[in-house]
Records
---
Amino acid sequence: MAKIYTDDDIDLAILKGRKVGVIGYGNQGHAQAQNLRDSGADVVIGNRDDDYGQRAAADGFEVMEIAAAASAADVLLVLIPDEVQPVVYEKEIKANLKAGDALCFASGYNIYYKQIEVPEDVDVIMVAPRMIGEAVRNLYKQGLGYPCLVAAEQDSSGKAMDVALAVAKGIGATRLGAFESSFEEEATIDLFAEQMLWPAITKLCMLYFEKLVDNGCDPEIIASELYLSGEFVEIAKAMITEGFFEQLNLHSQTSQYGQLSRGERMVPAEVRAQADKAMEGIKSGAFAQEWAAEQAKGKPTLKKLWEQVRKHPMAQAEKNLESFRKIAAKAYK
Ligand code: NDP
């Protein structure tokens, strides 16, 4: 079992006297920067002078150009989208790193796939919250934590993991717990969910919708049943409170029997083979190469795929239920 660190295992003192630079003030940037500041860290923001930069200034931060923040910081959190990190790193960060700095990522992707290569005298660490940015901030304000993964990929100072843990504590994650992990494990778990689990769930939902429409059921009632009712969310919540399998006890026995007796048939050998194929693409780097080539071409396939799903009849049913959806959404804000 992975080691889990909590607040009592961690000393924030390692951040004392060191400037923490947060590059980016978006989903994770705004949340982590404010939590770190509230935890006593000396935080500066690196961002272009635009809406995000102005938001950081309005929140009372000193905001600098990215290169200046990279130069000023001793611990630098890279909290801009993974897709833009390699270019921003080459142009604005690399030359401004000094020996003994720590470069901290919130995802394993760019280091694991060697899209970013860091000088040997700089620590490379990861603090990857398993939580959206808004909740990272809100949970912190409520005194609550959330899971995160921590790793030290390059430990030049001999203290890289201590710095990672201090950041994890500073952002409030270790009030619940930080799992010791690696860049490879984080990237693999993330990509496998994105390429196996979520696409399968999405496609099965679409199939459920299509088959019921084919069998004379009303598209809006199906969309409501499927996700607009919020039942999906309640089941996911019950997986935390009751357990992944034990939540089945909240359903009728007819439902329990249907789910437990039919589940295996829905994952035939072909699906298992596709899961292996997705894993192969992740491990070999083939997916990372395909995605880099797609980005270099201006993402034409991604645009086409978006056009296709937006034309699906389920999207139309959702549009027809716009006002219903807005009322339902209030329960989940
Ligand atoms: P965002 O999309 O919210 O990042 C927006 C920020 O990035 C803004 O400050 C924006 O500033 C800056 N930015 C965007 N493009 C550029 C560019 N080309 N050059 C310079 N700055 C740029 O990112 P996230 O917070 O979602 O993700 C940050 C990291 O956190 C990623 O590694 C991600 O994998 C990880 N992560 C994200 C989670 C999430 O909840 N979203 C959860 C866990 C980890 P500007 O206005 O100048 O464009």
---
Amino acid sequence: MMKESVHASSKGVSTIGPTDPAYQQCIMPDCAATFSVDETYAACPKCGHLLDVLYDWDRLNVPRSLSAIEERWARRDDPRCFSGVWRFHDLLPFAPADKIITIGEGQTLLHPSNAVGRYVGMKPDHLFLQYEGMNPSGSFKDNGMSAAFTHGKMIGATRAACASTGNTSASLSLYCSVTELMKAVIFVGSGKIAVGKLSQALDYGALTLQIAGDFDDAMARVQDISRELGIYLVNSVNPFRLEGQKTIMFRVLEALRWQVPDWIVVPGGNLGNSSSFGKAFFELKQLGLIDRMPRLAVINATGAKTLYELYENQGLRWNDGHPDLATVDAYSQKMNAEGLRASTIASAIEINRPVNLLKCIRALEWMDGVVRHLSDQAILDAKAQVGAGGMGCEPASAASVAGAKLLVAEGVISPDERVVCILTGHQLKDPGATVAYHSTDQKHFEKVLGSRGVRRAAFANRAVAVSNDVDEIIKAIRLYS
Ligand code: F0G
């Protein structure tokens, strides 16, 4: 059955047949309804919770060692081997090879950084930055978009939509313009998206709807409207997207010569990444391809810390598939009653109602995880250190480094453990925040960052004003270098 709507009505619900090695299943064990991968749902049509894509591994040809996948590196003329997502097709085998959509995503790098490691408090050679800014649209989203487009092609979708804090929309728009498979409709909160990201959606030709509200409003509206109009939804409620994001972890392992690190530290917004990382390691362990799980740290911004509140303060746990949903509802009602809105300079994670909350607490259970939150001050200081000692990143990405630093200070992470921080987005995504941090103009600094509680720029690299004169320029170079 080919359906474009991600919210198909329960009338159309079918269960999988015995011949399907890949299928969708509700994450809640008490429901556990299963569906074919040819169907598209943003939520389980039976109980309304999230869906997973699952595999009957015994009936699939999974390599016996991870290094067997490396042979594909040599076949770079085949786009499916060149892709850092589809090189791992065996570990996300929901689509036939001829349906795969790739635009060269996933050519990313695990960069060891002693400079950032010193800042975090690690011993030399123990801190790694997984730089996802090298993706075609400049963020990790392309890993998932490639998988969602592959599924979209399988079911014959012609239009795709998302709500976004900017990177999902940039990625969707790019995949639409390059592949010409679907038309993009994007929902962004008014004034809530960094200029680099907005410029991408406009340039790639997406229908861009600026909703009078924030991301949480846009997310609610896009779900209503994609249901109403039968548009394929590519937010991370789409379980196929998360399959693509698993490959970020596969590439981390590949770069570490298949050794499992001690910690994965990742910023938390809508919680798709953390959810997919948990699933990646869970499945590798299930398959006997790794012998232990790394620990997971998910880092919120202080101005958007729903996960932190629920997990660390209220003790919400996955509890083997029986989380205390009343706790989640009560917190949601409290946010409504208090009119609480997310607010952080790390606009990518300015989210108070993460759609993957339950999958994330499941990942935290599987990976013995912790959650922390950091102020905008701490995030921007960490970002400046990543810029000075790494590839640079956008503010949200630096939450991972700020979080690792906090966890080392708390003694949760030991300096001789191996820590991988995920740098989720490119440095050029949000130049406004960067320029304000390094600005010599105090008024500009105050205007952009003061309202966020940022008081100082401890690691600012300020431009030096010098007159248009050779002697003066030489004097300045001698003085400052
Ligand atoms: N870092 C960046 C750069 C992001 O763009 C996002 C999410 C996150 C971290 C958080 O990841 O949602 O998987 O927990 N951006 C989404 C967007 C929400 O619309 O672009 P998550």
